[in-house]
Amino acid sequence: MIINLRTLSDPTHLQILRAAAEKLDGALDAFREEIRHVVEQWRLIQYLRLPVDELELSVRTYNSLKNVNIATVGKLVLKTRVGLLKTKKFGRKAVDELEARLATMGLTLGMELNEKILAELA
Fold it and tell me: Boundaries of each RNA polymerase alpha subunit C-terminal domain copy (predicted)?
């Protein structure tokens, strides 16, 4: 976009410039939204790749995860609360601890992840 600044003293030209700036800002909104979405997806993938041993869990909860071969947050969030409670050596306190820790990252148990994210984790 080229703007001739020599004629901006005319109120009509100022209105035209203002309208052009508003249109440009509106056009950039789509890019801002896309960038926000990409950043959110990237952040989610980083959390999901995190090894569970970095969650600072109690030894009992960590060992329970290890016993059922859950090594990453990505594998963990695919499990449901009920499913974990039915797992041997998983009690309510362990599941509560996991839910609290996941909540600090904006995650929950029983998350449904789209195919694109699942492919990133594979």
Answer: 46-103
